[in-house]
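Supplementary Methods, section 5.1.

A reviewer requested that the exact input to the structure prediction be made available. We therefore reproduce it here, unchanged from the version used in the analyses.
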Amino acid sequence: MELTSLDLWNCRELTGDIKVFKDMPLINLDLFKCWNLTGNIKSLQNLPLTHLAMGGYDCNIEGNIEVFKGMQLKGINLQSCQNLEGDIEVFKGMELTNLNLNSCSYLTGNIEVFKGMELTTLNLYRCRKLTGDIEVF
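The structure derived from this sequence is encoded cell-by-cell as follows.
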C-alpha cells in the first residue's frame, strides 16, 4: 500500500506503535485523539510530511520535537501532547502556516522564534514554559 495521506482522527480504540509509519511516503498524517497509539515521534523524522496532527488528551506518543528540524511541515497540531519535550527553536525557518501547541506544557523556548513567520494560526494556550515578549506578534 502506498498511502500518502492517512487520517485516523478520533479512532480511539486503535492500538500499536507509530513506528509502523516510518517507511511510508506519507505527506499527511492525522492521529489526533488516537489515545491508544504509542511510540516515539523520532520514527516520523524521515517522512515527507507537510501536515501532522496528533495528540488529544491522554496522548501516549513521546519524544523530542527536535525531530521536526529539516522537515517540510506546513501544518502541525500537537494539542495536548503532554509527553513531548524540546525547544520551539526547531520551528525557526520552517514555512509553517498553522501551528497548534495547545497544552504542550513541557516545551521550552522564546516566542521570538515566530518573528517573521507566515503563520496564519498559532495556538500556544497553556504552554507555560515559553518566554518572550508578545511584541513579536
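The chain has no helices and twelve strands. These observations are discussed further in the main text.
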